[in-house]
Structure formats: structure tokens, C-alpha cells
Input
Amino acid sequence: MADITNNDLIELLGGKFGNKITGVNEPYGLLTFETTKDVIIGVLQFLKESEVANMNFLTDITAVHYPEKNQIAVVYHLHSMVKRIRIRIKVFIHEHTPNIPTATVLWKSANWMERETYDFFGVKFEGHPDLRRILNMDELNVHPMLKQYPLEDPNRVDKKDEYFGR
Output
């Protein structure tokens, strides 16, 4: 069984999705590209079901907030254990309307990953079977990984610099 290369994957995806595959690069050899939310499920399904790619394992779904661009990138990491290759897919969505289709239709494991991404970033996965907080309190009115919130509570007295000789 021959291994597949990053170039093979890009040719395969380009042939199927054309200009919906953009921003292709390979940081540290990890094939990374961008697509749009209207085709993300098609792209994921194609990569999962294609005998050439065989991306049979969803490693992670997370997000990154880019407040200077008013965007949130939803990031998918897939792995083909058979073909021994990994891939990263980014979908940029507007931070004020952070909606994207759910990947639970393809992988049951997406359930908790999407709940965590919703909990921390506020991304609403349309069609998710049970989208609710998973780690934070239900009463929390914010999504704490958005960059408008400070990393530390400014009211904590045990974190004052003068207590540490700074």
C-alpha cells in the first residue's frame, strides 16, 4: 500500500473542489489549507471516504480567534493511520456570526470536540445533537478563549507581582 504525499492530496482536493481550496502551505511538513463553511462537510467526507486519502481519524477540532480580522478559524486535524499522513484544515468564519455545520454526521467523536469549541470560543455547530457547555459552568456568559477576555482575573491578590519580588 503506497503512501500518499501532500502534493497528491492537494491535486486530489483541487480536482474535486477547485477554488474552494486555498491558502495551501506546509508548516513543518503538515499539509494545511483553508476552505469555506459551505463545503467543509463535503471536504471532510471526501477525505474520509476517499480510498486515496483514507483520513479515517478525526484527531481534533478547535478554534483560533483573530480579533484584528473579526474572524474565528475553526481548525480540523485529520489523520490517515493507513496512509500515514496528517492534514490540517481551517475554515474562517465571522466572529459575530460564528456558525458552521457539525462534523458529527461523519465522526461521532466530533461531538465533544465541538462542544468544547463552542464552550471556549462560542462557535455554533449547526445540526449538532447536543450543543451545550462541556467544561465551563452553564451560567458563564462569555466564551473565555476569545481574546477580548484577559488571561488572568485582575482582581486576584495572590498573583500580584510584588509578592514575587518583581
In short: The chain has one domain: 6-151.
